């Protein structure tokens, strides 16, 4: 190692520590995913996905699309 190198720029080998708020949020997401997996067989094959301003359903999708989009949204939240 060159003595002129800056020690502050070294890569740390310490494990990453999460705050209690992050851990709590990850637990909530895990529970949501678990509930989704348990209730998936009970969903109808086509589920509502969009409602208009009057509160009437005007968009439908197969249940697997709804579950997949939900899971992707949660993974995006984790990665931010």
Strands, helices and their partners?
Elements: H1 20-39, E1 46-51, E2 57-62, H2 63-79
Antiparallel strand pairs: 1-2
Helix pairs in contact: 1-2
Q: How does this structure look, described?
A:
This protein has a two-stranded antiparallel ribbon. The protein has one domain (17-51, 59-79). It has helices spanning 20-39, 63-79, and strands at residues 46-51, 57-62. It has two helices and two strands; from the N terminus they run αββα. α1 runs antiparallel to α2 (63-79). The protein starts with 19 loop residues before the first helix and ends with a helix. The protein is elongated, with a radius of gyration of 22 Å. β1 and β2 (57-62) form a beta hairpin. Helix content is 46%, strand content 15%. The longest helix has 20 residues, at 20-39. It has 80 residues and is of the alpha+beta class.
Short characterization:
The chain has 80 residues and is of the alpha+beta class. It has one domain.
Pick out its properties.
two-stranded antiparallel ribbon; 46% helix; 2 strands; elongated; single chain; 80 residues; alpha+beta
């Amino acid at each position: 190692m060159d003595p002129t190198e800056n020690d502050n720029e070294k890569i740390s080998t310490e494990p990453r520590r999460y705050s209690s708020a992050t851990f709590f949020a990850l637990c909530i997401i895990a529970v949501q995913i678990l509930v989704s997996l348990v209730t998936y067989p009970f969903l109808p094959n086509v589920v509502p996905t969009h409602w208009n301003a009057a509160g009437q359903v005007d968009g439908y999708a197969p249940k697997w699309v709804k579950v997949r989009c939900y899971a992707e949204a949660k993974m995006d939240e984790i990665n931010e």
